[in-house]
Amino acid sequence: GLKSREQLVTQAGGLSGKPVTTRSTEVIRTIAQLSNKEIPIIGVGGIHTPQDAVDKFEAGASLVQLYTGFIYEGPGLIKRINKAIL
User: Fold this and answer.
1) Buried b / exposed e across 38-61, counting CB within 10 Å, b at 16+?
2) 13-23: pLDDT as tens digits
3) What is the dihedral of CA 60, 8, 5, 25, to 10 degrees?
4) First and final CA of the chain: distance in angstroms?
5) Which of 47, 61, 70, 72 is the most exposed place for a label (fewest CB within 10 A)?
6) 63-80 residues labelled b (16+ CB within 10 A) or e (exposed)
7) pLDDT tens per residue across span 41-77
């Protein structure tokens, strides 16, 4: 799973958004390599820009899912991601 050297959360709940961007992409890359890209991977974690989505695809994601980025950046983010990947 996602682990950090430092404590990032001090209360109940989860960690999401930008703090998990890099690590989630690393995990996607590892799973894609270990599975020889034979399983679909949904890229999640810290997608706030079109480049974040592109990075997930380049790491081996078959598709991406976003929530926090959508909330903070608005629905235009979806259009910008589509423009970047299509």
Assistant:
1) eeebebbbbbbbbebbbbbbebbb
2) 677 888 889 99
3) 10
4) 31
5) 72
6) ebebebbbeebeeebeee
7) 999 999 999 999 999 999 999 999 999 999 999 999 9
**Segment 27-46 mean pLDDT:** 96
Would you state the structure tokens that stand for residue 19, as one six-digit string?
Answer: 């703090």
Q: pTM of the predicted model, to two decimals?
A: 0.82
Question: How many residues appear in the chain?
Answer: 86
Q: Show the tokens assigned to 49.
A: 């820009």
Distance of alpha carbon 35 from alpha carbon 67, whole angstroms: 26
Exposure of 3 in the CB half-sphere (CA atoms within 13 A): 2
Pair 45, 25: CB distance under 8 Å? yes
pLDDT at 33: 97
